[in-house]
């Protein structure tokens, strides 16, 4: 089966968490908004289609007659269907729990530059963004990364979950760290040594043979005006 993935074109966004899983596992998929002839309205138009279970927002994925919305939900499906999570029920829910925790930090990273309203420009909430970003840098980055460091320490292996192999949560943690390195390079430079296992995992995923072609291709979109944005005035040690 070839899956249809729907996400806005031009930014990695939350769609990248799903892309990484599909690409690393070699699962056939079509990026619908990037197909030849697709317009900027492609995702918005498709979301208006009559579906029994309509998605709230992209990313969402069509798997035959099934439409799956929400990043963690899509990955839960792929994890069970394609072995991207442990085989045990407890292991699958553990990886889903990790993914939801990653999603929490992703939302907080987004709110550093849009703390008041996503519909307003950053320039209209610059003062509030500075306060939110300072809190994110000094309190939230250490809180989340310390948690993942502890998980990796307890796992006593290279990956977050049992089985001796990467799961979709490892790929997602890689993308989260990658986004933080892009958006907050000064802060990450000053604290990354405190999280050696997290940073080592980031390096392992970056060098996965399964992702080599994807990372070298034009399919991988660069950071820009998405969730992770680099505003020098929001960064700091």
UniProtKB/TrEMBL annotation:
Which residues are in the GST C-terminal domain?
A: 88-223
Q: Which Gene3D superfamilies match?
A: 1.20.1050.10, Glutaredoxin
User: What SUPFAM superfamilies would the database entry show?
Assistant: GST C-terminal domain-like, Thioredoxin-like
Report the residue ranges that make up the GST N-terminal domain in this protein: 1-86
PROSITE patterns cross-referenced by the UniProt entry: GST_CTER, GST_NTER
Which EC number(s) does the record attach to this protein?
2.5.1.18
The protein's UniProt keywords, in alphabetical order, are: Transferase
Molecular-function annotations in GO? glutathione transferase activity
Q: GO biological process annotations for this chain's record? A: glutathione metabolic process
Tell me what this protein is called.
Answer: Glutathione S-transferase
Task: State the organism of origin.
Answer: Bordetella ansorpii
Source organism phylogeny: Bacteria, Pseudomonadati, Pseudomonadota, Betaproteobacteria, Burkholderiales
